[in-house]
Design goal:
The chain is α/β, with parallel strands linked by helices. The chain has 11 helices and 9 strands. Bound molecules: N-carbamoyl-L-aspartate.
């Protein structure tokens, strides 16, 4: 593993499988009454969020706490960032406080790279979403969820057909997923209107389509992307209704999927826009499970980056005695 996790491309096949296997081991912890391991005791994880988030922030916080790390939550609102403090000065403050890992979400694409390669901080940097660029832990939790449903929880995703639909242009989730899923051997097809597929997408390791019904027919998983209106500074499609009609996943379209196929969405959803409520709530939807898998995957990432002590999950009960060794 590299020191930082900034991109889906930072993980080769072996690294990706190591994270997914570790996450699977850690997931067993969720079923226990005491959901805590002493592995990262005495280490400090800072969650540095410059952009709104529900799932990702809570998920990283839960992950770090379940490994017994000290967690500092920082959000730009209510901090000196709103007084104009720079990323550099914020980073120097975190370094002075002894952060072992900094989990950063930022509206500017590239901010985590700046933090990781500036020399401002010594610890590991984890990209929790930067602008329209990347969101590697989301891709890992998506791969983890697919692996459970499509590959019996083991091995890679060789030959699985994954269809990712919608606002690819503004989606860091799509970018990281294409990189990671191709590393794991899956065949990805991106579907969306030409205006929402990025320039240069031909060079990505995936196929593209402007039409949804065809790719759905042999998909193993379909991932619907949120239409990210907050990042749109122009009209990318004629109307919400038109978008929904061509690219929304409704019950009729869901019926085109093979029997075993799963429906995914990273959240937050625009119900009625990219996904119909009845589809989001159907028994093919794994959307809520994606959220719980996110905690296990982020635990695995923090554990592997910070080189925690042995997991010791083989024991009957986790060690809860604060003086005991992990
Ligand atoms: C995504 C994000 O923030 O990039 N959500 C998430 O992390 N669960 C996708 C989105 O905002 O649409």
């Amino acid at each position: 593993m590299k020191r930082h996790l900034l991109s889906g491309a930072d993980l080769d096949r072996d690294d990706a499988l190591l994270v997914l296997d570790t996450a699977a081991e850690l997931a067993s912890l969720t079923d226990r009454a005491v959901k805590k391991l002493p592995t990262l005791r005495g280490r400090t994880v800072v969650n540095l969020f410059f952009e709104d988030s529900t799932r990702t922030r809570i998920s990283f916080e839960a992950a770090a706490k379940r490994l017994s790390a000290d967690v500092i939550n920082f959000s730009a609102k209510g901090s000196s960032v709103s007084k104009g403090e720079s990323l550099k000065d914020t980073a120097l403050t975190l370094e002075a406080m002894g952060a072992d890992a900094v989990v950063i979400r930022h509206h500017a694409s590239g901010a985590p790279h700046r933090l990781a390669h500036s020399g401002w901080i010594q610890g590991s940097v984890v990209n929790a979403g930067d602008g329209t660029h990347e969101h590697p832990t989301q891709a890992l939790l998506d791969a983890f969820t697919m692996r459970r449903h499509l590959a019996g929880g083991v091995g890679d995703l060789e030959g699985r057909k994954i269809v990712i639909v919608g606002d690819v242009l503004h989606s860091r989730v799509a970018r990281s997923n294409v990189l990671l899923l191709s590393t794991l051997g899956a065949e990805v097809t991106l579907v969306g209107p030409p205006t929402l597929l990025p320039v240069g997408v031909e060079s990505w390791p995936c196929a593209t389509s402007y039409e949804l019904d065809g790719p759905l027919k042999d998909a193993d998983a379909v991932m619907m992307l949120r239409v990210q209106r907050e990042r749109m500074n122009a009209a990318f499609f004629p109307s919400a209704r038109e978008y929904s009609r061509r690219y929304g996943l409704d019950a009729r379209r869901m019926a085109l999927l093979p029997e075993h196929a799963i429906v995914m969405h990273p959240g937050p959803m625009n119900r009625g826009m990219e996904i119909a409520a009845e589809v989001a709530d159907s028994n093919r939807s794994v959307i809520v499970e994606q959220v719980s898998n996110g905690v296990s995957v982020r635990m695995a990432v923090l554990y592997l980056l910070l080189g925690g002590a042995q997991l010791g999950l083989g024991d009957d009960a986790p060690t809860t005695d604060p003086g005991a060794e992990a």
